[in-house]
Amino acid sequence: MRDNDWTDPRWRAAAHAWVTARLGEVGTPVTGEIEEFRVRPWSVTHRVPTGAGVRWFKANITGCRYEAGLAEALAGIAPGATLAPLAVDTDRGWLLTADAGPTLRSTITADGRTTTWIAMLQAYSVLQRATVAHVDRLCALGVPDQRPSLLPGLLAGLLDDPSVTADLDPRVPALTGDFARWCAELAADGVPAAVQHDDLHDDNVFADLRFFDWGDASVGHPFGTLLVTLNTMHDALDAADRPATLARLRDAYLEPWTDLADLSALRRSATLACRVTRVSRAMSWQRGLADAVVPVDERFRNAPAAWLGELLEPTTI
Question: Name one Pfam family in it (predicted).
Fold first, then answer.
């Protein structure tokens, strides 16, 4: 049986047996059929009925299986800030959680959107600060180490990967010198490494501001989170509101870090972090697609090259 091959009936039987055993141990036995809910090349999610409500089982592809151990660690590092797992199997990358209700995106209102996003960003900054003292432990759990000093080497590896370069804008390799300088500046800015979600938006946060879905996460410059977050917010805002609102959101995120540097320096780091984190996004996609057990859609297959191509463009903020 191929490792974490969720198309194999033997794998499903083993996964469901594990789910049934773990829920039995905590007094919430399975009450019906466990159903496949969502399948991606990088993960699968199953819906599990119990007498205490729905439970969710998630398994990741080998390159992303660290999510289970990371979710468990974060629940201890920052209690109440994340969705704490009911059970994990870190060797197999299996994760079992309770249903935590609606996400922030499904409860947000147009009038309260900016205020809600500010609360989300500041809560996330506080969570990141809590992880600073634990980054070596997180890396030991398998969380990718993508600190600024390492990113030039990681970019070089991507540029040596034929599966990436086949779709790559030919102008990207010429940026390696500039990229190394950006990373060196970030590495020297005094902002410590922390957990970096790498796919943070308001659909990966529950309405009670608990964060989840850590399958893309790394240890890196914390401000790199703003790349996806502000891109998502940019697309949701009316064009006339974007510049002022995005600046306000960025500064709200940075406020919990102002003990480390003045705001103008933090803004410069945020812009640089958003630019270099495009390599982190390419790495996330490369991990998530490697040895995929289901067919990979074309829009996913060229994602690493597309993210590297973004290095040629200015950042949202």
Answer: APH
Q: How many C-beta atoms surround the C-beta of residue 227 within 10 A?
A: 27
- Residues 20 and 30 sit within 8 Å (Cβ to Cβ): yes
What backbone torsions phi and psi does residue 22 show, to the nearest 5 degrees? -65, -40
- Tens-place pLDDT, residues 121-146: 999 999 999 999 999 999 999 999 99
Closest C-alpha to 138, from 72, 189, 80: 72
Q: Given CA atoms 168, 169, 173, 179 in this order, what sign does their dihedral have?
A: negative
Residue 302 to residue 33: CA distance in whole angstroms: 36
User: Residue 1: its pLDDT value, please?
Assistant: 61
| Phi (first) and psi of residue 29, to 5 degrees | -65, 150
Classify the phi-psi angles of 204: left when phi > 0, otherwise alpha if psi is within -120 to 50, otherwise beta.
alpha
Q: Enter the CATH code of domain 104-312.
A: 3.90.1200.10
Selected from 3.30.200.20, 3.40.50.1240, 3.90.1150.10, 3.40.47.10, the CATH number assigned to the domain covering 9-98 reads: 3.30.200.20
Query: DSSP state, 141?
Result: T
What pLDDT does residue 110 have? 83
Which residue stretches of the chain have pLDDT < 70? 1
Closest CA to 64 of 125, 23, 3: 3
